[in-house]
Write a structure and sequence with these properties.
Radius of gyration of chain A: 22 Å
CATH superfamily of the largest domain in chain A: Spore Coat Polysaccharide Biosynthesis Protein SpsA, Chain A
Number of domains of chain A: 2
Largest sheet of chain A: 9 strands, mixed
Helix content of chain A: 10-25%
Number of helices of chain B: 11
Structural class of chain A: alpha/beta
Largest interface: A-B, 34 and 37 residues
CATH topology of the largest domain in chain A: Spore Coat Polysaccharide Biosynthesis Protein SpsA, Chain A
Shape of chain A: globular
CATH topology of the largest domain in chain B: Spore Coat Polysaccharide Biosynthesis Protein SpsA, Chain A
CATH class of the largest domain in chain A: Alpha Beta
Strand content of chain B: 25-35%
Number of strands of chain A: 28
Radius of gyration of chain B: 22 Å
Oligomer: heterodimer
Number of helices of chain A: 8
CATH superfamily of the largest domain in chain B: Spore Coat Polysaccharide Biosynthesis Protein SpsA, Chain A
Distance between the termini of chain A: 58 Å
CATH class of the largest domain in chain B: Alpha Beta
Shape of chain B: elongated
CATH architecture of the largest domain in chain A: Alpha-Beta Complex
Number of strands of chain B: 28
Helix content of chain B: 25-40%
């Protein structure tokens, strides 16, 4: 018997605007919020939607991500009958190919989907920060008898030209899709989250694969072609916090929005349902010393704080020595701030070491990124 | 180590007064993040021992709830094995609810040919013991049974009532005695025993005819005193702490907090991980007016007030204007604004709201039972 829904998470992106953070890992594997990796949000959302079959499409620098995904136990996908598998490009009788686009990534894994035999396929991106369950979206897709349902976010019309924009009728049936329009006629931005009826998706992907002019992309090719074919596409209006952390500034800002001073009803609250699952690092509980000052922070287990930390997100295995000061910064696992050092408005990649009395980015107002390679200099 | 079958002996656990009225020491919270049994299990895991059974004496639910997923402790969930052993007859008659009778009720492993050696380890000690080295030394000794000991100081205070060993020139146990308040430097018995399986079978047969109420410790003392078997002594040199009362629990917890913060290489070792059940709790939130000093804080906590010289377990909330000093607060407690705790051990799910100051006048510890609203 086939499954009702299979989720396919697109996690092959390079995330070039995150610079050194994605030099050796794909963007979905980048650390976030002191404890998580970006992909934890998508995988947790899927788990919280009672979907028990997930394919994670990896490509760029996939070793860390494939290893992290493992058998999906971190998100509970190791239960009876559950499946969680990393799907990197592979060699077949037709040869070996990189994924040429989002649609091609799914196309190259039709064998996986055929084995799972779902009625519906949920396709989403592995590099966004948001908490949700997809139940209502899938329910809307079924009840409206749509061929495809697209999750949309209402954005500021001034920002709309940065997104794929959907135009809808009074029933939220999609009438037009324009990728990054110069003059947007709607503020409904595609979140890159789709529910397809599998038979429809399969047919569309097979046709797209044969099209030499296609970029094999959902936004550019599959969705516009389905609209041209008068297939039924419906918009699902997502309400809530959603962030694309594709740049250093947006990654820093999204981290800062977790802090008590910036939290509000719209930002992410980890304590509320649905939960975000992640790796347990078997770290010690965090230790805050007599000499420490800790204000307006999010600090993960395994951190040892002897200095001054304010308005910052601190990951596991971070050491902040006595008389060091960290302000408005994001410290990823294994960072060491030596005694007397000062760090402001920085993202410090895993295992970065800031030397004794070193002053980093004081008063510039810019967000900077430092990574472990500076340790070697 | 494929040749070894490990028994974690909860029958040999100490009692911590009110703390262990409804749970065994094994599942009692320690250092905000762990249960005591995590130290025993992690030592086995780190030693590569993957065939583990737990001799449960009582409070079954509490132990099972903590252990839930054996993948937490096993390196390989297929080749490894994790089992809970209960002596149902012992529950009806507590006098006979001993570890030996529990083994007799679950003696399949004695006839299973997959292991040659059985190691019995206790809960209640906190130490980093490499059992792989212990087993290796046991095998090298050629003896059928070994005991593990650690040289300690101040035994009359820290280890009162436990056993001390006298060891002869051949490295065998010469005498087993109870530690008294006059003792200082002794060889402390760690209630850790290694048996060749056939020897254990033989001991169980012999002691069965002597008394149905014998424990393993009784059996070892008897064998040492009247038997014709030499018991090899294996030295463990890593430091050891032991809890057997509420006060000791508090003092050892506070000492370990300091050691973790300032002397981690000596007592703790980041390469020798302590595994525990994950609760998927978020990192700790500290508010803009938080003041935190000299404390261990577990994930899930929210600290907007003052915390000094304290240990907070998961999901504790300290509101702005509240303070927690010299205290150990268990999971899911809430300390509302305006409340001040000093010298308190608060069990799970307590809510401090109306009583503004909880502190004893004579400096003694105050224990607040689970679920109390003050």
């Amino acid at each position: 018997m086939g499954r009702n829904v299979v989720a396919m998470i697109l996690a092959g992106g390079k995330g070039t605007r995150l610079h050194a953070l994605t030099k050796r890992v794909a963007k979905p594997a980048v650390y976030f919020g002191g404890k998580y990796r970006i992909i934890d949000f998508s995988l947790s959302n899927v788990a919280n939607s009672s979907i028990d079959s997930v394919g994670v499409l990896t490509q760029y620098e996939s070793i860390v991500l494939n290893n992290y995904i493992g058998n999906g136990a971190k998100w509970g996908f190791d239960g009876v009958g559950s499946t969680c598998v990393a799907l990197a490009p592979r060699q077949t009788e037709d040869g070996a190919n990189w994924y040429k686009g989002t649609a091609d990534a799914i196309y190259q894994n039709l064998a996986f989907l055929d084995d799972e035999d779902p009625k519906y396929v949920l396709i989403l991106s592995g590099d966004h920060i948001y908490k949700t369950t997809y139940d209502k979206m899938i329910q809307l897709h079924i009840e409206s008898k749509a061929d495809c349902t697209i999750s949309v976010l209402e954005v500021d019309i001034k920002e709309a030209s940065r997104f794929g924009i959907l135009e809808v009728d009074s029933n939220d049936t999609i009438t037009k899709f324009v990728e990054k329009p110069k003059v947007p006629k709607s503020n409904l931005a595609s979140m890159g989250v789709y529910v397809f009826t599998y038979k429809v998706l399969r047919k569309a992907l097979l046709e797209d694969a044969k099209d030499p002019d296609s970029e094999h992309d959902f936004g550019k090719n599959i969705i516009p072609k389905m609209l041209n074919n008068n297939q039924k596409l419906v918009a699902y209006r997502f309400k809530g916090y959603w962030r694309d952390v594709g740049t250093l500034d947006s990654l820093h800002q999204a981290n800062m929005e977790l802090l008590p001073s910036q939290r509000n009803e719209e930002t992410i609250h980890f304590d509320d349902y649905p939960k975000v699952y992640s790796e347990d690092t078997s770290s010690y509980p965090q230790f805050i010393d007599k000499s420490a000052v800790v204000k307006d922070c999010l600090i993960n287990q395994g951190a040892f704080i002897y200095g001054n930390v304010e308005e910052s997100v601190i990951s596991n295995e971070v050491l902040i020595e006595k008389d060091a000061k960290v302000i408005k910064s994001v410290l990823m696992p294994g960072v060491v701030i030596k005694s007397g050092a000062y760090v402001e408005n920085a993202i410090l990649g895993p295992d970065t070491i800031i030397k004794e009395n070193e002053v980093i980015n004081k008063g510039t107002g810019e967000i900077i990124l430092l990574d472990y390679e500076r340790n070697l200099q | 180590m494929k040749n070894v079958f490990a028994l974690i002996d909860l029958h040999a656990s100490p009692e911590l007064g009110v703390l262990t009225e409804k749970r065994p020491v094994a599942s009692t919270t320690v250092l905000g993040r762990y249960a005591f049994i995590d130290f025993a299990l992690s030592n086995l895991t780190n030693s590569g021992i993957d065939d583990i059974s737990i001799l449960i004496k009582d409070h079954f639910r509490s132990v099972v709830k903590h252990l839930t997923n054996n993948n937490t402790y096993l390196k390989n969930s297929k080749t490894g094995y994790f089992n809970l052993m209960l002596n149902e007859d012992g529950l009806k008659n507590p006098y006979f609810n001993t570890d030996i009778n529990n083994i007799r009720a679950n003696d399949y492993f004695l006839y299973d040919e997959s292991s040659k050696y059985v190691i019995v380890i206790p809960v209640g000690f906190i130490s980093r013991v490499d059992y792989a080295k212990v087993i290796d030394e046991h095998i090298a000794s050629g003896k059928g049974v070994s005991c593990v000991y650690t040289p300690v100081k101040n035994a009359g205070v820290d280890f009162l009532g436990l056993n001390k060993y006298t060891i002869n020139a051949l490295g065998n146990i010469q005498k087993v005695e109870e530690i008294t308040s006059n003792d200082d430097e002794v060889y402390l018995g760690l209630k850790t025993f290694v048996f060749n399986k056939e020897v254990l079978k033989d001991f169980l047969n012999k002691t069965g005819s002597l008394s149905k109420a014998f424990s393993i410790t009784d059996m070892m003392t008897y064998i040492q005193k009247y038997g014709d078997t030499n018991i090899h002594a294996i030295k463990n040199e890593t430091p050891v702490r032991y809890v057997n009362s509420l006060e000791k629990y508090y003092n050892v917890s506070m000492e370990l907090k300091e050691l973790l913060g300032h002397d981690s290489c000596h007592f703790f070792d980041k390469e020798w991980k302590i595994y525990t059940r994950t609760h998927d709790t978020r990192p700790v939130l500290y508010g803009q007016k938080a003041s935190v000093k000299d404390s261990l804080i577990a994930n899930g906590c929210t600290v907007y007030g003052t915390v000094e010289n304290s240990i907070l377990a998961r999901n504790v909330i300290v509101e702005e204007g509240a303070s927690v000093k010299n205290s150990i607060i268990f999971t899911d407690c809430v300390i509302k604004s305006g409340v001040h705790l000093d010298g308190v051990i608060a069990d799970k799910l307590c809510k401090f709201e109306n009583k503004k100051e909880v502190k004893s006048s004579d400096g003694s510890l105050i224990y607040v039972p689970q679920g109390v609203n003050l």
